[in-house]
Amino acid sequence: MSVDAVTYQQLSSRLEIEDIDFASFRERPLPPDALRCLRYMHDVESHTVC
Fold first, then answer.
1. Which of 2, 39, 48, 50 is deepest in the core (most CB within 10 A)?
2. Where do the structural domains in the chain lie, given as residue ranges?
3. Are 20 and 28 spatial neighbours (Cβ–Cβ below 8 Å)?
4. How far apart are CA 1 and CA 21, in angstroms?
5. What mean pLDDT, rounded, does the chain reach?
6. Cα(11)–Cα(4) distance, rounded to whole angstroms?
7. Across residues 42-49, what is the average pLDDT?
8. How far is residue 7's CA from residue 1's CA, in Å, rounded to a whole number?
9. Which stretches of 1-50 are DSSP H helices?
10. Which of 10-19, 29-38, 41-50 is predicted with the least confidence, judged by mean pLDDT?
11. pLDDT band, very low/low/confident/very high, at 12 (cuts 50, 70, 90)
12. How far is CA 31 from CA 4, 23, 28, 36, 39, in A?
């Protein structure tokens, strides 16, 4: 399915994070493999606009 930029902008919205309990990660941190994957995905998404 191909979506043009205008349609994508109309359909997308800001990520809601208010319901995420970030403090719980102190008690139950993510495993190293999950953190490595998140760092990789962050880098890929950061460079998408480049």
1. 39
2. 18-50
3. no
4. 34
5. 90
6. 11
7. 85
8. 12
9. 5-11, 24-27, 32-46
10. 41-50
11. confident
12. 37, 16, 9, 9, 13
